[in-house]
Amino acid sequence: MAEILGAGVTHYPALIVPDELRRFPLHLTLQRDERVPEDMKDPSNCPESMRIEYGEDQGLASAAVHRSRLVEGFRRVRAEIDAFNPDLVLIWGDDQYENFKEDIIPPFCLLGYDKFDCVPFSSGHTGSEGNVWQEGQETDFTYRGHPEAARFLTTGLIDQGIDMAYAYKPLHHPGLAYAFMNTLLYLDYDRTGFDHPVLPFAVNCYGSGVISNRGGILPYKAEGKTLPLDPPGPSPKRCMQVGAATAKTLKDSPWRVALIASSSWSHAFLTAKNHRLWPDQESDRARFEELTSGNYAAWGKQTTATFEAAGQHELLNWACLLGAMEELGHKPEVFDYIETQVFTSDKCMAVFKP
Fold first, then answer.
1. Burial class (CB in 10 A: 0-12, 13-18, 19+), 7
2. 88 CB-side CA count, 13 A
3. Are 46 and 278 in contact (CB under 8 A)?
4. CB 178, CB 96: distance < 8 Å
5. Whole-angstrom Cα distance, residue 219 to residue 225?
6. Which of 25, 88, 136, 226 could pair with 219 in a Cys bridge, judged by C-beta atoms 3.0 to 4.6 Å apart?
7. Comparing C-alpha atoms, which of 267, 261, 262 is closest to residue 283?
8. pTM of the prediction?
9. Model confidence at 224: pLDDT above 90
10. Sign (positive/negative) of CA torsion 343, 337, 64, 195?
11. pLDDT level of residue 43 (50, 70, 90 thresholds)
12. Is 316:307 a contact under the CB 8 Å cutoff?
């Protein structure tokens, strides 16, 4: 039986940008989101803990602590991946109106490219105005793909009743959507290189908002009107089924595989009940308790509606991972669980060893 390592990380975009630039999504929400009530734009009406975290410097001091914990988490996950020495690294991540647009939105899609050529700091991308590595806009990264594994896994999933989409070349995005790209940038935060072959596994986490928001924090408007909501993405239960089927297939493969879920947890700008200003930490704590206790099945009992009400859209990536870990019987080793009310989302850094 093939050996499989699991890991959970984040692709939080602001980690790319120097903290001094304060490119925190909270600022955009306060300035431009018409759905935020006027009285909630007064900091005195926000939770006291949020005001303390924001401080007198618009969150700058807290951002340094937040970054330090994330970077340490990524270093520990990277060390586990290197020690495991996988033949390929599969990443569950969400495509946010990048490679998939109006012409097709698959619930799941394996990207079996030969290689991935990425220019993450080019004009229009996060970090184009400056990044923590001081790398230029033209800096490119090339990652090896694994078409053979993509074909093998797609076949196995179809044989198990999952009608899996796949692709051998990009559609609208020449490199990788940022959920995958950021994950690789952060796993190589110290710029030692990342030579493990990569197999991106795209999940339609944003469902009803994937086109109507066009990948942005705010609803997209055409001729002054917001677009109608889209159909939902796959349910948490279905994502867990897909994860389990992935593990079943790869157990019989000739490769050592690292399975990585990349996402933050509840997103403030998606949490309407908190005026889109801070995440649903109560729901995140419930999911975290289920994770750490090994009660993975509880995630499959959540619905699309409950995930979206909590701003946990991207947790579908982790649901895929937990479906795989439940199938394999792997338990988590949590390196850090980071709660924040200012920096968009709570985050978890963990590994699941064979």
1. buried
2. 23
3. yes
4. yes
5. 9
6. 226
7. 267
8. 0.97
9. no
10. negative
11. confident
12. yes
User: Length of the chain in residues, anyone?
Assistant: 354
Q: What is the mean pLDDT of residues 124-132?
A: 91
Average per-residue pLDDT for the chain: 96
Single-letter amino acid code for the residue at 266 = S
Residue for token pair 């596994």: 201
> Rounded to whole angstroms, how far apart are CA atoms 163 and 189?
36
As to burial, measured by CB atoms within 10 angstroms (0-12 exposed, 13-18 middle, 19+ buried), residue 144 is middle
What lies within 8 Å, CB to CB, of 315 at 6+ separation is 205, 236, 263, 265, 287, 299, 307
Residue 216 has pLDDT above 90, yes or no: no
Q: What tokens appear for 157 in the block?
A: 């999933």
100: tokens are 């998939």
* In the block, residue with structure tokens 């509840």: 266
| H helices, E strands: number in the chain | 10, 12
Residue 6 corresponds to which amino acid? G
pLDDT on residue 90: 99
